Amino acid sequence: MSAISIALLGCGTVGTGVIKVLEKNAHSIEKKVGAPIVVKKVLVRNPDKLRNVATNATIVTSFDEILNDPEIKIVAELMGGETPAKDYMLAALKAGKHVVTANKDVVAKHGRELFEAAESSHVDFLFEASVGGGIPIIRPLKQCLAANQISEIMGIVNGTTNYMLTKMTNEHMDYNDVLAEAQAKGYAESDPTADVGGFDAARKIAILASIGFGARVTLDDVYTEGITNITIEDIEYARELGFVIKLLAIAKHDDRGINVRVHPAFLPCTHPLAAVNDVFNAIFVKGDAVGETMFYGRGAGELPTASAVTADIIDVARDIRHNVSSRILCTCFEQTHIYPVTKTESPYYIRLLVEDKPGVLAAIAGAFGAQQVSLHSVIQKRKVEHCTELVLLTYRVSNENIRLAMNTLLGMSVVSKVGNVIRVEAAQIS
Ligand SMILES: NC(=O)C1=CN([C@@H]2O[C@H](COP(=O)(O)OP(=O)(O)OC[C@H]3O[C@@H](n4cnc5c(N)ncnc54)[C@H](OP(=O)(O)O)[C@@H]3O)[C@@H](O)[C@H]2O)C=CC1
Ligand SMILES: N[C@@H](CC=O)C(=O)O
Ligand code: NA
C-alpha cells in the first residue's frame, strides 16, 4: 500500500521524539501497519531554530499548508496550550483528518467538542500521551478494562513534580534548582506553574476520571493543590515519621458520588507509590471484576512521550488501512454527583510555630478537640525564631473539621505561624 502521510504540529521535545521513533523503527512500524508512515509536513513557530533531529519533512509556519493538503491523513498536535491548538485540531477533524494529541489542556477542557467533530467526520481522535506520558493508560481504561465498573484511580501523574520531590528528598536539592533541571530535561510544561501548581495533574486526573467513571469530570471539579509550599522541613519530618511526600492525583467513585483531587500527601515508605521516583509515574486502577491494577513507567520526556504518540499514529494508520474509524469515542454517559473535598477524610500532618510558654500545647489540643480532631502524636524538637516548632499527626478526620480547627488556630495569639497542613494517605494511624 502507498505511504500514509502525516503532519506534526510542533517540533519541540515531543515532536522531535516522534520523528526519531518513526525513523528508527520505520521497518517494524511498516510491517505492523502494512504501509510506511511518512512525516510530510511539520508546523513550527520559528523555522530557523536549530533542531535536535534531521527530517525530510517540509517545515511550514502556516497551518493552512497542512489543512489544505489532501495527502495528509493524520495530524499529530504536539504544540501544547489551548490556543491555537484546539482550533487547529477542530479544523483538521472537520476536514476529515484523523487527530492524535498529547495535549491534556485541550482534552480536559474541550474533549467533548473534539469527540463530536471526530464522530461526525468519521475519523479517529486519540490522546494516549496526554496522561502518564509513555505509560499506556487511556487505551487500557477505554478498552482492556471496559468490562469493569471502576471505583478508584490513584497515582502519580506529573513527571516534573515527582522528579523534583525525589531530588529534594534524596539529594536535598533546592526547589528552584531542581525545577530548572526538570525544565532542561524537557519534562516541564512551557509554563511550569501548571506542573508545580498541580494543574497539569488535575487535568490528567479529570481525563482519567471521565473515562474511568463514564462521567464528565472537568478541571473545575478537581480540588487542586501543588507542591509550592513543600519545604525541606516537611520532607525531613515525613522521613522521620516513616513517610515520603508525593503529589497524588486521586479519583474515587463511591455511594456519595465522585470525588477528584490533587494534593501533596504523606505516603507510608512501604506503599508501592513511595518507590515511584524521578520522572516515573504510576497509576492504580481498581475495577469490580479485575481488582487492583497498576500502570508504571516514564511520565514525561522526549522518547517515552513519543512512544505513546507514535502508537496512536500507528493505530490510526491501521484504521485507515482497514477502512474503519472512530471506533471508540466519548464514553461519558453518566450524570454523577461530584462531592467536594471537604467531605473527604484522612489523617493529617500539621506543622506549627507556637509561642514557647506553659499551657500552649493544652490550648492547641483544646482547639482541635472542639472540632472533633483527635491528635495521635506531637513532636516538639526545635526552636525557630524564639518559637517552638510543633509537628502533629491527627487521627482520621474530615477535611471540613481540619479546616475549622485551622481557622481557630490562626486566630490564636500563641500560634505564630502555620508551617504546613498535609494529608496522610493510605496509612492506618491507630
Ligand atoms: N514534554 C513532555 O514530556 C510531555 C509533553 N506533553 C504535551 O505535549 C505537548 C508538546 O510538549 P513539548 O514538546 O514538551 O513542548 P515544546 O515547547 O518543547 O514544543 C512545542 C512545539 O510547538 C511549536 N509551537 C508552539 N506554538 C506554536 C504555534 N502557535 N504555531 C506553530 N508552532 C507552535 C513550537 O515551535 P518552535 O519550536 O518553533 O518554538 C515547538 O516546536 C504539550 O501539549 C505537552 O503538554 C505530554 C506528555 C509529556
Ligand atoms: N509536564 C508534564 C509532561 C507530561 O505530561 C509532566 O511533567 O508530567
Ligand atoms: Na499515556
Topology:
Blueprint: E1 4-9, H1 13-24, H2 26-33, E2 37-43, E3 58-60, H3 64-67, E4 72-77, H4 85-94, E5 98-101, H5 104-121, E6 125-126, H6 138-144, E7 150-156, H7 159-170, H8 175-184, H9 193-196, H10 199-213, E8 222-224, H11 232-241, E9 243-254, E10 257-268, E11 280-287, E12 291-298, H12 302-321, E13 345-346, E14 348-355, H13 360-370, E15 375-384, E16 387-394, E17 397-398, H14 399-410, E18 415-424
Parallel strand pairs: 1-2, 1-4, 2-3, 4-5, 5-6, 8-10, 10-18
Antiparallel strand pairs: 7-9, 7-11, 9-10, 11-12, 13-17, 14-16, 14-18, 15-16
Helix pairs in contact: 1-12, 4-5, 5-10, 7-8, 13-14
The protein binds NADPH dihydro-nicotinamide-adenine-dinucleotide phosphate (NDP), ligand LTNE7NMQ and sodium ion (NA).
The site of sodium ion (NA) has 10 residues, from loops.
Describe the structure.
By secondary structure, this protein is of the alpha/beta class. It folds into three domains: 4-133 and 302-321, NAD(P)-binding Rossmann-like Domain (Rossmann fold, 3-Layer(aba) Sandwich), CATH 3.40.50; 138-298, Dihydrodipicolinate Reductase, domain 2 (2-Layer Sandwich), CATH 3.30.360; 341-424, ACT domain (Alpha-Beta Plaits). It contains 14 helices and 18 strands. The protein has helices at residues 13-24, 26-33, 64-67, 85-94, 104-121, 138-144, 159-170, 175-184, 193-196, 199-213, 232-241, 302-321, 360-370, 399-410, and strands at residues 4-9, 37-43, 58-60, 72-77, 98-101, 125-126, 150-156, 222-224, 243-254, 257-268, 280-287, 291-298, 345-346, 348-355, 375-384, 387-394, 397-398, 415-424. The strands form three sheets. Strands 7, 8, 9, 10, 11, 12, 14, 15, 16 and 18 form a ten-stranded mixed sheet that branches. Strands 3-2-1-4-5-6 form a six-stranded parallel sheet, sandwiched between helices. It has a two-stranded antiparallel sheet with strand order 13-17. Strand 4 (72-77), helix 4 and strand 5 form a beta-alpha-beta unit. The longest helix has 20 residues, at 302-321. The model has no long low-confidence stretch (mean pLDDT 96). Residues 10-15, 43-46, 49, 78-80, 84, 102-103, 129, 133, 186-187, 189-190, 300-301, 305 line the site of NADPH dihydro-nicotinamide-adenine-dinucleotide phosphate. The site of the ligand N[C@@H](CC=O)C(=O)O has 11 residues, from helix 7.
